[in-house]
Fold these 3 entries.
Entry 1:
Amino acid sequence: MPDKFYVTTPIYYVNDVPHIGHAYTTIAADTLARYHRLFGHAVFFLTGTDEHGQKVEKAALDRSLSPKAHADGMVDNFKRLWKKLDITNDAFIRTTDSEHVAVVQELLQQLYDKGQIERRTYNGWYCTPDERFWTEKEIVEGKCPDCGRPVEQISEDNYFFLMSRYQSQLIAHIEKDPGYIRPESRRNEVLGFLKTQALGDLCITRPKSRLAWGIEIPFDRQFVTYVWFDALVNYLSATRYLSPPAEGASDPSARQRFWWPADHHLVGKDILTTHSVYWTAMLMALGLPLPRNIFAHGWWTREGRKMSKSLGNVIDPNEVVDAYGADAFRYFVLREVTFGLDGDYSHEAFVTRFNTELANDLGNLLSRVLTMVRNYFSGAFPAPSSEQQSDRELRDIAAGLPRMIAGHLSALAFSRYLQDLWTLVSRANRYVEENAPWTLAKNKEMDRLGSVLYHLGECLRLIGLFIAPVMPATAQTIWDSLGIEKKFADVHFTAEAAWGGLQPGTTVRSGVQLFPRIEKPGGSQGSSRANADKQKKGKVNMEKTETAAQIPPAAAGMDLIGIDEFAKVDLRVGKITAAERVEKSDKLVRLQVDIGTETRQVVAGIGKSYGPEDLMGKTVVIVANLKPAKLMGVESQGMLLAASSGDALAVATFEREMKPGAKVK
Ligand code: ME8
């Protein structure tokens, strides 16, 4: 692992307010930065705003403001959100910073002097909203091939960066270094494009008569710089005037040499070409080192639909954070979707992860352990005694995690990292059940009880350390509640990751309840904060799992069946892979359901409550051994379980992810 770590996010346009997509990239970068800081590495985490160009000029005009005044106001939306999300960026660059403007002009002059920029008359098609030129071949029926809006024919003089010269060099570099563009599928896309199409030169100016809001071209004051040329340079210019002080690197060029190249440029897939082709070619032309990696993550949709202002379905991270806290949001976005793939946000999915993984698995584990240490050992962690098999299993999982985390984070596999970390959380919960501390207490086996609680306390200390990059406040709360007097800002990961760091005698503190369950999804009463207040007032039954399960008395008056009879019904987990309405029926939908071993066609009478789009991807319960039947002429090879009451109908699903084919009993 390098001792210097430089990570960037895109600089976001100030034409709009930040949403979940912006937060996603920034949270990912923050996680990496925090992780490296835990190793004592010199870290530079850069984010900022892209303030020039037509989009911003137009947004300002719509508000009757000057572009700069508009940008000054919008920038705070980003800064405030980053604060709320506990983002620890070392710097915030604005492309209107005078230092940045000077670097852009210096680099333009350099390229011009080296003969890498030429003036030409451009005749062709232009998409104003996208600020992009297209060739005759590229446009589709008079429309922009990217956004589908009409293009205009223009003829004007401009300056071009001779990017076409770098086509073979680009291919060679991307082929030679498989880590340069990640994930692999995106790398192949870029290579495919570079190998099959002639790379054009890049128009890097706009005549002032058409666009005034930009950085003036130093060798021709009639023009301003194309917004992308200006924006990409931020990654380099920031190293000169915004980077953290580094030993022996005081003047701007020494600072640039120290910090450049970046270790990761994190970007959304929408802007991979500008980074992997334009930016790489610009650096090649300038004779500067290339970044170590450009990582393109996927796109967030909401409940299967593209997010847009006009649809009014944009997720505002502020709202989620206000209701459930920054850490839950940070955890959700990184855990829910493999970094690199597209993802979908739904409140239901958020609540499910919150309640199962955060409230049940983690929050409950902490409260149970604290309560038991208080009840059985007056609040001080006892010393461990002789080790048993289940203790060793916990230790082994914990011992393997630092390497696992290092591997996953260097591959930016955030979801895998959290998934693997949760094996320790789950194992610790199972360990509680297996060792039944309440029985040990009843039987006065205090030595063993002490050992069990020590092992659990130590697991929680390590879980705190391992989640710190993703959930910094939760990590600190866990340590504070355990009675550990250290701050994450002062600790070293390697020293803390070894088993045995919890000192016997450490006294637990009354902490806040981590992640109180969300009882009513959606409404403000359902917010976790509201729950926390309720739970503080009322008595929370944290030890409910410590009592033997209550067996309900046989229900009088019902037709009772034996377990053998119930076992005849083969219930299976199924995943809906396709859904459509049955023609001429408003009630029936035809589903294709993956039940592990095969895909079944199931016709269900749920069409009045669910449209096909609501059902796609849902995990459901299927009666797999029902005789096939025909409903309105369509064969149904099974039945889907749903509850109904009056007009209300709900399909039975699972509280956590289950594999298709798993038996339901
Ligand atoms: O493109 N899902 O700025 P921008 C995932 N200024 N990520 C998303 C997203 C979504 N639905 N929507 C946005 C620009 N993003 C330029 C960048 S860099 C030199 C200049 C994230 O405000 C994602 O990181 O349109 C995407 O690349 C970025 O926001 C685009 O932000």
Entry 2:
Amino acid sequence: MSHVAAPGVEPLSTPLAALPGVGPERAAQLARLGLRTIGELLLHRPRRYEDRRRLVPIARLGRDQAAVARGTVVALGLKRFRGGAKSVFELILDDGTARLHCRWWNLPYMQRYFAQGDVVLVYGKLCGFKPRAIDHPETEVVEETDEPSIHLNRVAPVYPLTEGLPQRWLRALVWRALARFEAHLTEPRPGLAPPDLPSRAAAIRALHFPAETADAERARQRLALDEFLDLQLAIQGRRKQLFAHASSLPCAGDNRLIKPFLKQLGFELTAAQTAVLREIRRDLGSGRPMRRLLQGDVGSGKTVVAACSALMALESGYRAALMVPTEILADQHFATFSRWFTPLGVEVHLRTGARRTSSAPPPHAQAGSDAGPAAARGAGPAPGRLNPPQLTLGTHALIEAGFVPENLGLVIIDEQHKFGVAQREQFVRKGHYPHLLVMTATPIPRTLGLTLYGDLDISVIDRLPAGRGPVKTFVRSAERLPKVWEFIRAKLAIGRQAYVVYPRVTEGDDDLKAVTKEFENLSQQLAPFRVGLVHGRLRAEQRERVMADFRANRLNVLLATTVIEVGVDVPNATVLLVENAEQFGLAQLHQLRGRIGRGGHPGYCILVADLQTPEARQRLKVLEETADGFRISEADLNLRGPGEFLGQQQSGLPPFRFGDLQRDRVLIERAHQLAAEWLARTP
Ligand code: ADP
Ligand code: MG
């Protein structure tokens, strides 16, 4: 056998065009499928398998389950109708038990592929019994030259194709490539091969040509495990690297700012908040950079934890930065932190796309005994000690090049689930290994967390502060809207406020017109109560004015797009109405619902939705039944699948060919474990 690979070239990197039988046209078709090398071809995952050892007699084909049958072409023909504009091509197969009509609508060229007397494999389920018929089945003509070992009498792979590429040709190519290159399919990490799963070589063989259908699934699991392992080794390896090389800034603080801060706060921290702060303080003083994720359901009080963490860094003479996903939230945090921090002598700066502002403390506002930090006494910019302490708040504008604070000790990212992994990394690269605290209200099931946040330690605030009014959730159809408005007016009449969330998620020009119209309707409908409108396209001053008016109860109702989804905190607002709720994900609705029930009054979340289908009803019922963000996330994940559920969070994750973030939780756990053991063993 001649060697295709040039010496020194990794054999699996051999271009497919080097294989006999792969000319430029075929190579181009394969490239359209992303297949350029032998290695890529051998990982081309079949779409499904056909067990061609157990063909189903045509007489026993059913409506419910797709099956493979085989018959001989006894008649075929193309019928045109509507003056030739429409057509149906029909092929009649007979296998001795019955006849089967295969039909293709408006695909006249199908007739080119078949001839009288051909033996045809057909896959599908019946759409009718009189006659037995399948519309648009998948078919394969059996050729006399077919090697039975490849195409017939076996569990045969059916691959994703591209135009012009025949199934049988691709299957034979994979067969030949396997025969020739199987020896090069070595274990990527010999010490790590899991004994209960096939070897990598066996898995790749069984992926294409399994002895039994179940073997294909075990092969998939092995290949999925390898993918998860690659990811875990990268994540955990990076973390190990960081801890080995980065000496971190001592940021645990000395309480001189936190003490007066907590005194004027107006409430006691909950036990959960205190416990988390203890973990954070330990990290900040540990000598290696903190990488911590704080999970806490909406309203659990993460902002105060962020504030205390920032104060620890500031007490230690370092600066802190806090990044949030929306301008509205940035404005709100700016107001909150200015109120909290300026009396302590801390400067608060705001940097968003729209503006830059600062709130400077009054002179001599330094709290605590250690009044003048060293720099004030002319000690120079030696580690720590800057005058005055500074917190910078902002949106992703903070990541942009201009912002490189001196002595950045701590980076906090609020509502991390709205950012991508890449943005987090970008932010931390500023300064000298600052500590990182990321906060999220979207509880991610543990295994997903391992892939998304595998490099982070996790803290959880598992209790809401006491004294919250209960929140009731109702799902209603649109006919009930008049009653709903009546209810809302009654709540407004006793002084409460309401959010009305407008369904559009995007903010294009048409949507803008629609929401403006909705605003006019609503203002009329609810008069004399005052309605404000906020959306992502408002200019900063307008937006701030509306939010300030709503906060101060000068507006009774806020009509908003999903810009208010995260973080907005107005305790007197107790009613949330979401129209067209069926258009939102459950986790998103739960976030929106987090806008209410923040004060002592009972809250009401009314989801008006198109409830035509039982599924829609069932889905929203989850929200009526539970306020537990974890359960809601799980339900959302199961309903929508990880791709949509994770959305932007997933950016930064590699695409998985074999792994499935939802189904493969056991494998993910295992990869996490194996990677940890492996890294502990290898220096
Ligand atoms: P989230 O975790 O959603 O960011 P916030 O930090 O906005 O929640 O807190 C929600 C509300 O609860 C705020 O009004 C905040 O001041 C209040 N809060 C936070 N911690 C406590 C506490 N320990 N006791 C009482 N109220 C608290
Ligand atoms: Mg928050």
Entry 3:
Amino acid sequence: MILGIETSCDETAAALVTRDGDVLANVVSSQAELHARYGGVVPEVASRRHLELAAPVLAEALEQAGATLDDVETVAVTHGPGLIGALLVGLSAAKALAWSRRLPLVPVDHLHGHVASLYVKPEPLEPPFLCLLASGGHTLLLDVETHAGYEVVGTTLDDAAGEAFDKGARLLGLGYPGGAALDRVARDGDPEAYAFPVARVPGFDFSFSGVKTALLYDVRDLPADELARRRADLAASYQRAIVRALVERTRAAAAELGTRRIAVVGGVAANSELRHALGDAALAPLELCTDNAAMIASAARYAPPIPFPEYLALDAYATAA
Ligand code: KG4
Ligand code: ZN
């Protein structure tokens, strides 16, 4: 089995996945609460917490799978993009484990990991497909022809979709990270109450900074009691604008590229309105939408392993090349 390790942001995660895509264990320890009081992830705090959590999370994954390190044949680890200090904790742990047991190591790109969340059982998706990857750090349209990679056909020019959800949630007093909370509150609101525009940029790119500013102006002018009364309507309308932009662009790209199948991955793929609007798309299982290590181990099934001990000099990278 493949041991996956993921520490690119504020989730410490370990998973065990078989060569043919059975997820035997998938343990995610979120640090969200730790960072909530700062209103965002504090990189140095995240690194230190990964250091404390790496071993217990790994132990729990092995226990869940009823396995020991003797059963691990390959170690897979995220080496970027993400917070560099956070990545280095996972990468160092993976190197140490692989080295101590003379195992090969597969470095995995976090974004390829998100796509590979679609390749696990019980319903693995087969390329080709057009993949919308919408998370806290990225909003990408990917043309996926093989299990091993993808071609970027669209990206965000400013904020990521998840970032727009989080900033909107903060403006509405829903805490951090607020995407899921905004999703919940929006269920009681009228999505047509406010007309939030989303910029239409050329090609298949996205832009979410304008919609955030529009919400800021509306919220700023509301007295506190009025804001409380309109919160659900604001959340529903704001969510509608983001989801509409994602869906329109994705459908337009699929039509132009002649791709029959659409898939959605990343944290925002957990959004209920997006899941509903793209009901005909392949959706990653909910627990594999937000950051996890099962998707990293899954991606490693399609990447060449680096033999022992050549990976010891491997470095992490903060941003995609
Ligand atoms: O993929 P992910 O866990 O981490 C990154 O790689 O960024 O995505 C996290 C993002 C956050 O911005 C979070 O607010 C958003 O996904 N998110 C949601 C929902 N659940 C998580 N956004 C909208 N609706 C949700 N239900
Ligand atoms: Zn992610």
